[in-house]
Amino acid sequence: MSDVDSHRKRILILGGYGVFGGRLAELLSDIPTIELLICGRDISRAEAFCRRYTGRAHALPLALDRADIAAGLLTHRPDLVVDASGPFQDYGSERYGVISACIAAGIDYLDFADAADFVFGVSAFDARARQAGVFVLSRVSSFPVLTAAVLREMAKTMDIVSVEGGIAPSPYAGIGLNVMRAVVGYAGAPVKLRRGRATFHGVGLGESMRFTIAVPGRLPLRNLRFSLVDVPDLQVLPPEHPTLTDIWMGAGPVPESLHRMLNLLARSRAALTLPSLQPFSRLFYAVLNRMRFGEHRGGMFVRARGLADGRAAERSWHLLAEGDDGPYIPSMAIEAVVRKWLARDRPAAGARSGVRALELADYDALFQGRRSTADFVNPKPKPLSTARFSDRPTPRFPHGSRTCMGVPMRARGADRRR
């Protein structure tokens, strides 16, 4: 091994040739001091990715199944493991096997986990991670890292009572099969969130609202339909804001015709207690990745309502990502953490969600030189006596329903527009 090789930091990416892992590898391609182990069960796909890979970082293909991670860590001795495989909802009884192996081997760990229960449970490994002197950060992605950073900025001027957020991917962004398995898997299933200060179970992809993402001074996205998704934000953000009573997070995929079809299937599954729709994942994966038309733009929003100086206040944050910028945003959080880690600014030891991994200023630096623009919008505050927090656009529930997953609820508006 050369002197250069011996000083390279070795980063093992499980699912390194997939959508999120591959984009992370591209974002890190300008760093000559790292070696990327592009891992997965299919060595031919790993080899094909490495042949296409260009950049100053060194990429090596590796056949490695997560079930064999302990032996793989001993053999290849990475300095950092990034789990970009998934679907995390399907990890079963050994769901934390990679985390346990990393802690035992004294190796730092990051992941893209999109399963709220998985991320919420990572803190159980905190004491072990601290004792081993390693950091374990779960769900280091725009939901909830960027969402949390935005809300911390908003909380400087208001007490946050309710939060709504959504992500609107470009129709040209592409979606991985594992991501589709996860989404279709929770369609029509109970999704844990907070509503009226209490734990509540909504219907995955069965509740919808509309919103227009509009950065001041920029052409807005068209008014989009967003539907409830099972993301870690729903569980890891409420403890960050003691005054928070309600939280809702959605996705706005297009075309809307396919989106509405998923809504109908989700509501049918919930109403008729049908089995999981996951067997249809490949069908939706194929259709969604072929129906690419419309503007190549995406975006994200976070809207908070609460109190500021005794008055009802509302603030919203809007992000527009032009062209190919949008698909890379979910991987930018881990990019930022890796760059800080390489600069000896490593996260504190312990196991937790990535909710405090970055601040908004870190994202501002990441967006520099890209076609991504974000800004806050601050409607004029209302006097407390005339404001109603129930004015917020409310998710749409199955037609005529006064219950959601068996929990009584009051009647709500349907598909009200911003």
Explain this structure.
- The protein has 418 residues and is of the alpha/beta class.
- 31% of the residues lie in helices and 25% in strands.
- The chain has 14 helices and 18 strands.
- The protein has helices at 3-7, 19-27, 43-52, 69-76, 97-105, 116-121, 126-132, 142-154, 177-186, 233-236, 256-272, 281-288, 329-342, 360-367; strands at residues 9-14, 34-40, 58-63, 80-83, 108-111, 135-138, 159-168, 190-195, 198-203, 208-211, 224-228, 246-251, 297-308, 311-322, 350-353, 372-377, 403-404, 407-408.
- Helix 2 (19-27) crosses helix 13, helix 8 packs across helix 13 (329-342) and helix 9 (177-186) packs across helix 12 (281-288).
- The protein is globular, with a radius of gyration of 21 Å.
- It starts with a helix and ends in a 10-residue tail after the last strand.
- Mean pLDDT is 88; it is low at 385-417.
Keywords:
418 residues, alpha/beta, seven-stranded parallel β-sheet, seven-stranded mixed β-sheet, globular
TL;DR of this structure?
The protein has 14 helices and 18 strands.
Which helices and strands occur, and which strands form pairs?
Blueprint: H1 3-7, E1 9-14, H2 19-27, E2 34-40, H3 43-52, E3 58-63, H4 69-76, E4 80-83, H5 97-105, E5 108-111, H6 116-121, H7 126-132, E6 135-138, H8 142-154, E7 159-168, H9 177-186, E8 190-195, E9 198-203, E10 208-211, E11 224-228, H10 233-236, E12 246-251, H11 256-272, H12 281-288, E13 297-308, E14 311-322, H13 329-342, E15 350-353, H14 360-367, E16 372-377, E17 403-404, E18 407-408
Parallel strand pairs: 1-2, 1-4, 2-3, 4-5, 5-6, 6-15, 7-12
Antiparallel strand pairs: 7-13, 8-9, 10-11, 11-12, 13-14, 14-16, 17-18
Helix pairs in contact: 2-13, 4-5, 8-13, 9-12
